[in-house]
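Complex record, two chains
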Amino acid sequence: MTAVSATPEALSVLDRPNSYIGKVVPRPNLERLMQGRGLYVSDMELPRMAHVVFLRSPHAHARIVGIDAAAARQMPGVIAIVTGEQLAAVITPWVGVLTHLKGLKSAPQHAIALDRVCWQGEAVAAVVATSRAVAEDAAEIVGVEYQELEAVTDMRTALDPQTPVIHPALGDNLAFERNLDAGAVDAAFASSDAIVEAEFVFGRHTGVTLEPRAVVADWNPAEARLTIYQGTQAPHMVQNIAALHLGLEEAQVRVVCKDVGGSFGIKVHIYADEMATYALSKLLRRPIKFVADRVESFNTDIHARDHRCKGRIGVKNDGTITAFEIDDLTGIGPYSMYPRTSAIEANQVVNLVGGPYMAKNYRARARVVFQNKNVMCQYRAVGHPIACSVTEGLVDLAASRIGMDPVEIRRRNLIADDAYPCASPSGLRFEQLSHHASINRLIGMMEYDALRAEQAALRRKNIHRGIGIASFIEVTNPSAAFYGVGGARISSQDGVAVRLDAQGSVICQTSITEQGQGSESLTAQIVGSVLGVSMARVRVILGDTDNTPYGGGTWASRGAGIGGEAALQAAKVLRKNVLDVAAAILQASPAELDIVNDAIVNADDGAVRIELRELARIVYFRPDTLPPGIQPELMATRHFVPREYPFAFTNGVQAAWIEVDTDTGFVRLLRHWVVEDCGTIINPQLVDEQIRGGVVQGLGAALFEKCIYDERGQLTNANMADYLVPMSGEMPDIDIGHVVSPTLETELGAKGAGEAGTAGAAAAVANAVNDALRPFGAIITEIPLTPQVILTALGRI
Amino acid sequence: MTTALPISLQVNGERIDAQVLPRLNLADFLREHLKLTGTHVGCEHGVCGACTVRVNGDIVRSCLMLAAQTHGVIIETIEGLSDSGEIADLQAAFRDRNALQCGFCTPGMLVAAQDLLLHDATPDRERIREHLSGNYCRCTGYQAIVDAVESTAHARMGSTP
């Protein structure tokens, strides 16, 4: 195609002059955040606003015998002390199940516990006062009498007959079980030259958003409307759920999402204390603010992972992988979370194990059990780190057993780059992946052979370094197959409205949300590029159910791929409308015109014909000068949802270069590499920073992060000093490369990138540690890889 | 114990007179009394660094200092350091490098980074990483922040004759 002969309409968004697609441009919203002029929910104040503090159970499992709040109610500044029973008059309970997860069961969960608490941290009463400090003072003198019950804490014994059933009406502690048997697994193992087995153990950890969960709920009885200011990833989902359980129409609920201090999946769920805050506002007829403190965050923000997965791999001496088999067990706390459920992670593990490889024989069982610990649900890269660590751990063990290099065994088994479209044994459909191009790129970037030589040389000096490789696939751009088909009112489509204002600038309203990923920037980049308008003249509005089209929000690596395509399509329509008006004003045909640098220009020679500012002036203020019959439409709305593929799978590969101090057990991260294929790259810097941030969250899981419960269900490290997260001093520089296989399902071609880093980082580090410890014959399949775990494996303690 | 104490101090160049309860910490005083919400509260026990401000020229975790201890001091918060232009180059480097995502840690990170650059004009990456180790960021993975601080140090050295 030649640019000269192409009409403007024939140019794709990627070809247009002055396109922002693929360019590094700064995010428009950074200045306010850097100057301390952002507006997080924790910053908000409203007239008559009161503060709620939740009195929370110190026990993992107990009957509430009585609550004595008489003295606390008398304290100056105390507005109300509300129990679960009182609040139940305003808000109905919920059950976190989805119909497409067959057999998933859970018990009704209330905003505040009624007569029994099921985890340490569950709210038993709400104390509402004029300030948080007063509410905390009052909470201290509320007397709650508990009768402690036996706590179910160990997922391995949760299904034993002698273990108490947490919810007797459910019959047992099994929330969900899925079994899969594809191909001929037994025959495949029988034909293998070697079979390797291991149990992989994953620590329970959490997201630790630096801004805790926060909500201001403002019920205005005079308007009969509830405005919820909340740091959420999914405003329309919150609107739907709040309305449903408060007995309101969705039109009576507005959800506003300002700046959000970190999300990572933590802020995409419906939490009991947030529901209680909405209900308290309705009950008390005034704005109520809830901001979790850090101890509450650790005890009530969803936890994730906490899997024990037995894995088995069969391999032939030529490196051919014959079969994978897993038996996964996970404990999710006492309730399946609402509305996305707590079975998704285990389900994803079943879906994803073995996913990068050609082997067609795969058997899996996953069981999800209840326990008296904090709730577990979807956190960044849901299931992927488990599946990747199990798969890549098994592949490395198989390679080691047959004496093959870890890169070589992958090259012999990864699905060929020309084999697409194809499907995995678990039924996942792949449009176009690039495992081989990616691993080749990675090997080049890290100078694999030189690194191996360095490793060998250092070993002779008693320095133990290791290389770990982890290939992965990632679920992005989810269609309705994720939640909608199971009955959840969580939109998989997104919408974007674009309009030209009276000075020729562009206002863009999108249903995706921003928590720092760059949603605002990528939307402006796409709209500016398609329209021919400079980014400085595009303003993006998001996070407000009253003022954006209906849509899903930002989660599951969907913002760019789905919301970005809606922005592209809306901008195309507006562009056509603008050119139609311009043609009428200029007595030309639309095909002769283009929009470049905020002006209508001749398509052939680029000469400026009329500025957009002047076009807008005519349309809005002098429509009388337009030819008869012309009604300009300088606003356009388009929605998009993937229909062809349930998920746009991406792929990538990571490598870690680490050193183990075999005396202290400490692991030093020296370098980390990632090659990722997320299709069209809208802003390379944003993609790379999403990947780096994701990698570091995966490194946290690999080395530090773990919610440590004792046998009575007490979380023993619920603070930032004892729960370790990655700090700048111990993180490595991370090199990132790309292979680009755009999805053909959209014109934009973008797939998601937000979770790729987290998906494979821990697997790469674990494989690297085992590589470093190979001379000692130690194999570790547990994370976090703490000094204690490593020294134990080395037999030193 | 519950009697308010009078304090008089300077915050971002403004004279402030206030009555504060002994238990009120500086972070809450800045946020709730002075409405300087750029100082963020992340952990409330001096670990995460989101509440970092400058007190008499030294960086302090404002959640670990009581408002009652600030009588007679000079405090600079992110709002003051932004308006004065003192860290404009550092902020520009953060913007160009996308060294922030959600931005919640950023005010504290900028205050801590400026402190390093005032005391060590040519820090290497390891020194930058070490100095910022008391400021948690959950979004970026730190590399972009280290890059931005490093490039600011280079630029400042380049502009010094």
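Note: The domain at 87-159 of chain B is CATH 1.10.150.120 (DNA polymerase; domain 1).
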